[in-house]
Amino acid sequence: MKVVQVLPSLDGGGVERGTLEVARGLVDAGHESIVVSAGGRMVARLESEGSRHVRWDLGRKSPLTFRHVGGLRRWLRREKPDILHLRSRLPAWVCWFAWKGLPEHERPHLVTTVHGLYSVSRYSSIMCRGERVIAVSGTVRDYIRDNYPQTDMEKVRVIYRGVDPGEFPYGYRPSDEWLARWYGMYPQLQNRKVLTLPGRLTRLKGHHDFIDLIKRLRGSGLPVQGLIVGGEDPKRKAYARELRERIAREGLGDYLLLTGVRQDIREVFAVSDLVLSLSTKPESFGRTVVEALTMGVPVIGYDHGGVGEVLGQLYPRGLVPMSDAMALDQAVRASLDSDRPRPRNDRFLLDAMIGQTLACYRELTQ
User: Fold this and answer.
1) What is the chain's alpha carbon radius of gyration, rounded to the nearest angstrom?
2) CATH code, 176-337
3) Is 136 in contact with 161 (CB distance < 8 Å)?
4) Residue 306 three-state SS
5) Fewer Cβ in 10 A, N or C end of the chain?
6) At what angle do helices 287-294 and 305-314 cross, to 10 degrees?
7) Hey, CA dihedral for 80, 81, 84, 90, is it positive or negative?
8) CB 226 within 8 A of CB 211
9) DSSP string, 81-118
10) Quick one: pLDDT at residue 95?
11) Contact 7, 35 (CB under 8 A)
C-alpha cells in the first residue's frame, strides 16, 4: 500500500506522535509511507524511519489555505496513493475538496481519525466523512454517534491509542546520573510521597483541584509533595500566573512545584508515587494515564471521558467522581497506603494500535 497521512504540522503532540508511529509501522511492514504537513522538529525522525515528508501548509486558519485544493488534487493524481488518511479538521476540508474533485476511479480510499471531542459543528463534521472513521476510544465513538447522526456507524472503527512498553518499561528506574540531577534541582522531593499532575497549564486540566488536594493532605499531616508538570500555553499566560500567585499566597511553595515542560516524563513518572488526571472536561483518551500505568505507576483520575474508560479497564481503584474532594482524598490515601500489586497495561499497546490501523486500511484496499 501507499498511504498518505495529513496533519497541520510535526512540532510535537499526541496526534503527531501517533502519525509517526503509524508511519513507522507502515514502513516496517513493507508499505510506502508519506506524511503531508507544514513541517516541524519531528520531520527528521520521520524521514530517518523511512517515510517521505511533503511540506504543505494545510492547517493555516485562513480562507487562503483553500488555494491549495487544485495543487493537491494534481499531486494526488500523480502520486496515486491507496489511502488518504486525514487527522485534523482544516487539512481534512482542503483534502476532501481535492479528493471529491477527482474522478471516482482515481480517488484514494479516504480514512479519517477523530482524535478529540471537538466542538459540534459542520466544520467538525468533516472528520466523520471517511470511508472508514477511526475513533481513538469508545468515548469518541459515542461522541460521533450522539452528535453526527448522519454518520454510518458501520464505518467507524474503535482503535485505541497505544503505548510502547519499551519506551515506558514496567518498573523502570532512572539512572543514578538522572536522579542526582533531579534531586539536585528538587531536594525537597526526597523521602516524600510525590503526587504528579501532568499536562499543559490550561484551566481544564484541573490544577486548582490538585492544589486543593495537596493543601488538604498537607493539612492533615501527610508528607506529600505535588508536582505540576507541563508547559505554559502561550495564549494563557495569565492562567499560569494565577496558579503561581495562588501557590505563593497560600504558602504552598515548598510543597507544590511547577517544573515547566519536561522531555523526560518517563523518569518523572518513575519517581512519582501517584499520577493524577483531574481534567474537568472529558478527554478523548488520556495518553499520559496509559503511559504511567504501563510503567506500573498508579493513577487516580476523574471518572469521565477516555480517562474513565482507560482506568475502568486497567485500574478501577483509581476512579473517582469528578470534583468529589472527599472521594479523591480517600482514593489517594488508599493508593499511598496500599501494598497491592502495581497496575499493568495489557490492552492499550502500540503494536495493537498499528496492527488494527493497517487492518483498517486493508479493509478498503483488498
Assistant:
1) 22
2) 3.40.50.2000
3) yes
4) helix
5) C
6) 20
7) negative
8) yes
9) -SEEEE-SHHHHHHHHHHHHTS-GGGPPEEEEEE-S-P
10) 98
11) yes
Q: Write the pLDDT tens digit of every residue in 135-165.
A: 999 999 999 999 999 999 999 999 999 999 9
In angstroms, rounded to a whole number, what is the distance separating the alpha carbons of residues 131 and 103? Answer: 16
Residue 276's contacts (CB-CB under 8 Å, 6 or more residues apart) are 195, 196, 197, 206, 210, 213, 299, 300, 301
Q: Which residue has the cell 494563557?
A: 236
Query: In 10 A of CB 194, how many CB atoms?
Result: 18
Return all residues near 117 (Cβ < 8 A) that are at least 6 apart. 139, 140, 143, 281, 282, 283, 284, 305
Confirm whether 2-162+349-365 and 176-337 share one CATH topology: yes
**Residue 212: per-residue pLDDT:** 96
DSSP 50: T
Strands of 299-302's sheet in order across: 256-260, 224-229, 193-198, 274-277, 299-302, 319-320
Q: Residue 235 has what pLDDT?
A: 77
Question: For the chain, what are the domain ranges?
Answer: 2-162+349-365, 176-337
Query: What are the backbone dihedrals phi and psi of residue 275, each rounded to the nearest 5 degrees, phi first?
Result: -110, 140
CB within 8 Å of 249: residues ≥ 6 apart: none
Q: What does pTM read for this prediction?
A: 0.92
Helix, strand, coil percentages for the chain (3-state, nearest 5): 50, 15, 35
**Dist CA 33 CA 25 (whole Å):** 9
Architecture of domain 2-162+349-365: 3-Layer(aba) Sandwich (3.40)
Q: Please report how the helices 350-365 and 14-28 are oriented relative to each other, as an axis angle in degrees rounded to 10.
A: 70
Max CA separation in the chain (angstroms):
71
The ranges of the chain with pLDDT < 50 are none
Asked if residue 240 lies in contact with residue 232, where contact means CB atoms within 8 angstroms, the answer is yes
Q: Which amino acid is at 276?
A: L
Three-state DSSP class for residue 272? coil
Identify the residue whose cell numbers are 508538570: 229
Beta carbons within 8 Å of 200's beta carbon, 6+ residues apart: 230, 231, 232, 233
- How far apart, in whole angstroms, are the C-alpha atoms of residue 196 and residue 276? 6
